[in-house]
Amino acid sequence: MSVVPWTVWTSGVSEEPMSSSISDHVVINAFAWTTSATFGGHYVYDLILEWGGYGDHDGHFNSPSNIAVDSLGNVYVADTLNSRIQKFNSTGAFITKWGSHGSGDGQFGGSTGVWGPAGIAVDKDGYVYVVDPGGNRIQKFDSNGVFITKWVVQAWWQNALAFPDKVAVDSSGYVYVLDDLDHVQKFTSNGTFVTKWGHTGAEDGEFSGTQDITVDPVSGYVYVADGPTMPLQGGVARIQKFTLSGEFVAKWLLPDYRITGIHSIAIGPTGNVYASDNTCDRSQFPSFWDVVEEFTPDGTFIAKIDIAKLADRESAPVVTTSDIAVDSDSNLYVLESTISSLKGPVLKFGLVLRHPPNAPTSPAWGCNVIGCSNGATPFFSWKFSDPDPGDAMAAWEIQISTGPDGTGAVVWDSGKQYRDNSSVFYNGNPAFFYSGSYQLSQGVTYHWRVKTWDNYDLEGSYCADQTFMLGSATTTLISTSTSTSTLSTSTSTGTTSAITTTQTLMSTIRGTVYWYDSYGNLHPLPWAQIVAVSQEDTTIVTSSFTDGTYVTYVNPGTYNVTASSDPAFKSQSKVITALPSAVTVVDFQLQPTGCPLGGTCTATTTLTQGTTTLTQGTTTLSTTPTQTTAGLQMQVLSNSTVSGLAFDSTRGLLNFTVSGPQGTYGFFDATVAKTLLSGQPVVLIDGVQRSATVSGDTNFWYIHVTYPHSQHQVTIGGSNTVPEFPSVALLAIVLLLVLIAFRRKPGQ
Asked: Are 53 and 344 in contact (CB under 8 A)?
């Protein structure tokens, strides 16, 4: 069933907008067009289909440049470097193709064969018009690719070629061509020149780099996009509107495109104008990457869709939206010219019904100072709620006022804040700090509320009115508003007033996450994940800042706190007790696994078997290094080759050999049961005591050592195994005495 255009919504009457065949697609922080329905739903764009890949087989492409849709929903793609046109139905099924390299009829690229087809348009009768820049011409075909006619596009004020680029056609069959000299040329459907307009300039009716052209078949207006195409070129991107004879009507600037420019435009069935940006490096300009926006015919902004997020392209450093088209059912087609072998370059987005978020639940507030005394900064927390499964919070707005539900004086309105991942959490919900300029007073009751937007940019309602007070003698680190109690505060007149709130003593867990490099040095580790699990199975999740620090707020109790990161680092866990209104500092030092950052690897691992026999094998490095077997309990993980593993149970010594290519560094992580060693672990490499990082728990020692690669004999034993392990200090004294003896002169 066809999607209902937005304008057909009438009071209380609607038609189902989309067939049940649309597949689910998970979207995060994506913005889409919306319109209200009488029953509270909104239609938004979501990815429903993609097809294609790199190559020259049917349905594959090599740098496709333009896309068009006919009245029956068939899709035509200019497959530029394959010098052909491909035709598909609306579900992406291949129908036919035509074209090859050359300068003959139905061929593209001219005699050199360097350029293939570019702009493409289809008229109401199904005739296809294709720009052939290499031949400086327009070619006309029927819907099956049969050649009809052709004509050369010239610079109209002189007998010169004009290098056509884009093409559009109106409801009467007139053809409009953009050339690279900032002209619009109008022809009949058989190529007879009619008129022309435009030249290089920045005034109305002039062009500073034409990008695309489209015609509204209903209203009969021509729209031309011009302006800069690449970052920092200068100039202003805009869309200009003309009559069919070239008379200037209106224009509008695109502030979101001041950096990247416009690349393509299209007209929807209701006359709205769609505009897409040009290629942009996401690492440098993440806010202007792969976005399509919709405007009314007079240039009023409606909304935007984040193609990269809807189509799961965020991990790609550069994505090129080459062209866009809109069919009669308002489906949006996006053509990508940078092709991954795993992703299709033709993306189809359809309108689906979504609902705004519910009012946030579990609102809570707290402070960064115990007791919320002078200098405290409050923060606010809530749980996102949405009737549509899979939706996520994309933005929020907090309002603080002197009266309930936003009445009285508004002392702070955060405005719409697009959510960044918060590193402060309360009971598993992200918390955001007050950042207003108004100085909040001690002992004053303030009212606050919050609302959210989902990943389709749909706005929810405010939560129920909440209150908070700073500096009250009974105010603690966090006060929640899920239940009520009455507090009494003294006023300047000696009277007592009641404040309804709920207060809970909270605890703070903070610290720093570090990582070891191959030399054994510690560095702060940003973006590590810290998970605190209570005995009641309450899970709190946060992440470290860029300097490796983190902070989270929890109910008092015992927690198993674990820090983890990239597979290149082992996770580490610690059990702590969080006391009421207290700060518990928990630092982590993550050991390397030997895996490359962002990747996986394997390393030689040796494990104990039975009581004295050890065998060797290869296994994938694990983030849980402790493994136990009956009898002996130990493990060695290393990026070196480990051999000759043996345990001397009589003296309590673990011996093995490590080897690796010279010029690199190696490490090993040994896990040894405490019952096997007498005293603190001591490590000898080639008979010399080596500095080691040692930690332990009730049952095991964890030993980390780094070393320059070559072949080394390693021995691990306990510090009470004397004289097996003379101290470094003793060795230094002996060496010093030997040197003194050699330097002493005869007779002295």
From this structure: yes
Residue 393 contacts by C-beta under 8 Å, 6 or more apart in sequence? 357, 384, 419, 452, 453, 454, 455
Taking alpha carbons only, the member of 654, 646, 661 closest to residue 718 is: 654
- 162 in Cβ contact with 183 (< 8 Å): yes
The two three-digit tokens of residue 110, written as one number: 């001219």
With beta carbons less than 8 A apart as the criterion, state whether 693 and 520 touch.
Answer: yes
**Residue in the structure block whose two tokens are 């309105």:** 413
∠ at Cα 387 (386, 389), nearest 5°? Answer: 85
Task: Of 17-21, 128-132, 515-519, give the range with the top mean pLDDT.
Answer: 128-132
Supply the pLDDT for residue 466: 95
Query: How would you classify the pairing of strands 417-418 and 291-295?
Result: unpaired
Residue type, 290: D
Rounded CA separation 490/473 (Å): 11
For residue 174, the one-letter residue type is Y
Give the Cα separation of 203 and 9 in Å (integer). 39
Decide if 317 contacts 325 (C-beta within 8 A): no
Confidence of residue 73 (pLDDT cuts 50, 70, 90): very high
Gyration radius of the chain over CA positions: 35
Is residue 132 classed exposed, middle or buried when 0-12, 13-18 and 19+ CB atoms within 10 A define those classes?
Answer: buried
- pTM passes above 0.85: no
180 exposure class (CB count in 10 Å sphere: 0-12, 13-18, 19+):
middle
d(CA 28, CA 455): 6
Q: Which two tokens stand for residue 583?
A: 């700060």
Q: How far apart are the first and last CA of the chain?
A: 109
- The bridge status of strand 507-516 relative to strand 588-590 is parallel
Higher local confidence (pLDDT), 349 or 227: 349
User: Rounded distance, CA 577 to CA 616, Å?
Assistant: 40
Measure the CA–CA gap between 23 and 16, rounded to whole angstroms: 16
Q: Bigger pLDDT: 409 or 367?
A: 409
Separation CA 8–CA 11 (nearest Å):
10
* Half-sphere exposure in the Cβ direction for 118 (13 Å, CA): 25
